[in-house]
Design goal:
Layout (H helix, E strand, L loop, with lengths): L2 E5 L7 H11 L3 E5 L3 H7 L5 E3 L4 H4 L7 E3 L12 H5 L3 E3 L9 H13 L2 H10 L17 E5 L3 H12 L3 E6 L11 E4 L3 H4 L5 E4 L13 H6 L5 E4 L8 H10 L4 E4 L19 E3 L10 H18 L14
Parallel strand pairs: 1-2, 1-3, 3-4, 4-5, 6-7, 6-9, 7-8, 9-10, 10-11, 11-12
Helix pairs in contact: 1-11, 5-7
């Protein structure tokens, strides 16, 4: 089946190249790059598919749209508008393309805390030689990691944690089968009862209506005082002020954070100077060959769409993932 696919604005640096590659690899697709919102309104009228962010005023012009490829694994807040949720268009995302990089970033946090580097880094800056005892070490073969969200990234993180000898438990809103490395998988409702067991609480969940503000003062209070918190999912899942308070009060032992409720994190925010906090500026996804990975997913879905086959990575629009 031949179909029209519109690349929606705003365009990234390589959108034209990606569009040309898609057109070459899927000859059934008539690929059009809309440079402006006015172009998008005109081109979407007879399009069966689109890639990018579909604004409500553009969606209203769509007469034949059946498939929308989201531009990210977990699009930012506001992507799933009420109009898009109500529309019959099938939305797919890019989940799975970060499995070879984000888990490594998570493990960098885990190993940093496990070996006491959060203690020795400040000493280095002060020129202080002060070896610490066993209290500075989390012995991973006796430690428990609680992974909140056992999707592709969470599952790979579980495998890596288990390779270091950790006991890994998980909670997930959808998944019921425990992947490699996970000793027990629980429904999302079990989170509060599991928090006191964990030495590392690792968030890989997307921002959805049910996860917004999930980690607040009450949940930090359920964690061990010796436990560490890691968030590389979405910043809106964690209340920054509550995290800052938990670090400064000793409610938790430390935190590795790559995503924030406010981005960029304001220079004056107290989290910058909170004790035992490692802050990276939303870079856990960095690494080579990301654009080819994006194109591979879009291309495979375009082939499936042309053949009338089920699409990859279909989203529950009402849940945003």
């Amino acid at each position: 089946m031949k179909f029209k696919l519109v690349f929606l604005p705003p365009q990234g640096d390589r959108s034209r190249e990606m569009a040309a590659q898609l057109a070459d690899e899927v000859p059934e697709a008539n690929v059009v790059v809309a440079e402006t919102q006015e172009d998008a309104k005109r081109e979407i009228v007879d399009a069966q598919a689109a890639f990018g962010t579909l604004k409500p005023d553009v969606l209203r012009e769509a007469k034949q749209l059946a498939w929308l490829q989201a531009p990210a694994a977990a699009p930012t807040a506001g992507y799933y508008t009420p109009e898009l949720i109500a529309h019959p268009v099938v939305v797919t995302n890019l989940r799975g393309i970060f499995n070879d990089r984000i888990p490594a970033h998570i493990m960098a946090y885990v190993l940093h805390f496990a070996r006491g580097l959060h203690i020795y880094a400040p000493q280095q800056r002060e020129g202080v030689w002060r070896p610490h005892g066993e209290e500075s070490v989390v012995y991973l073969p006796r430690a428990t990691a609680l992974i909140v969200g056992v999707g592709n990234i969470g599952a790979e993180t579980a495998r890596l944690c288990a390779a270091f000898g950790m006991r890994v438990i998980g909670v997930d809103a959808r998944r019921t089968d425990a992947p490699e490395g996970v000793s027990a998988l629980h429904p999302a409702e079990a989170l509060d009862s599991l928090l006191p067991e964990a030495d590392f609480v690792i968030l890989t969940i997307p921002h959805t209506p049910s996860t917004e503000g999930l980690f607040n003062a009450e949940r930090f209070a359920r964690m061990k005082r010796t436990a560490f918190f890691v968030n590389i999912g979405r910043g809106m899942t964690t209340k920054l002020d509550a995290l800052n308070d938990a670090l400064r009060s000793g409610t938790i032992a430390g935190a590795g954070i790559d995503v924030y409720e406010i981005e960029p994190l304001p220079k004056e925010h107290p989290l910058w100077t909170a004790p035992n906090a490692i802050l990276t500026p939303h870079v856990a996804d960095r690494g080579p060959d990301l654009d080819p990975a994006r194109v591979a997913v879009i291309t495979e879905n375009a082939r499936r769409f042309a053949a009338g086959q089920p699409l990859m990575n279909v989203v529950d629009k009402a849940s945003w993932f």
